[in-house]
Amino acid sequence: MNRSIFFPAILLCYPTVSIAAPKLTISPALLYFDYTEFSTTDTVLNNETGWLPGLEASLRYTPSPDWLIGLNTSYFSGTVDYDGQTQSGVPHTTDTDTDLFRLGARLDRSIYDDIYLFVGFQTQRWERNINDKDGISGIDETYEWHEYAIGLNTDLHLSEKDRLTLEASFLLTRDATVFVDLTRVNLGTTTLDLGDGTGGRVNLNWARQYDHTINFGLGLFFEAWQFGRSNTRQLENGSSIIFVTEPRSETRNIGLKFNMEYMF
């Protein structure tokens, strides 16, 4: 079976408190997960899609009028549809248990009025369990990688209490690996190195000031990235020998969030 995978929109809120006040944002969210693997001739091998509920959190601190420092994390978990084929090319559908975790930091610098340039880093982990079905064995995989981002965001004042924030960033995916667990078929485990890739993320956030310490809002985001084809490893159990390679892949996610921000 061919194997094969988050981010977050940060809400910028009103400068209604002292410069040094930290801001905590909690965001229940829904992520539409869309992951596709390709052969060496760019034929689609399999596709995994579905909605994942999750939660995001970010903490931001403003040490001066021109600088912002932020930490962010998120976790999404659920089941998505798998539409692909076996190693012999027979069409196969099942579902995949999916867990996505992210932890990152970023630094923003004011460059003109309400326009900020930012750089960010995230470490990401995707636990993927393709389930057994119709006598066909599934597979457990764990992807881990680093994401580097650079981008711009800007604020638009819609009214005295309403603000719209637009953010766009360019992404680099680096140091990606996938741990492949084939113990279900007695072939042991191995770790593959995925190829580096690029991507992008766009966030659109609306926020409304509730009082001097609390804001509410909605966020919509789109993100995409890719991984290059991995190296190849040999596995054997004494009677069978197989060669394991992770295909080139692309991920395209859409997300919706409800943001609740508290300013200390």
Walk me through what this model shows.
By secondary structure, this protein is mainly β. It has a single domain, classed as OPCA outer membrane adhesin/invasin (Lipocalin). Helices cover 0% and strands 72% of the residues. It is built from no helices and 13 strands. The protein has strands spanning 23-38, 44-64, 67-85, 91-112, 115-130, 139-157, 162-181, 189-193, 197-209, 214-227, 232-236, 241-245, 248-263. The strands form two sheets. A ten-stranded antiparallel barrel has the order 1-2-3-4-5-6-7-9-10-13. Strands 11-12 form a two-stranded antiparallel sheet. Strand 11 (232-236) and strand 12 form a beta hairpin. The radius of gyration is 21 Å and the shape is elongated. It starts with 22 loop residues before the first strand and ends with a strand.
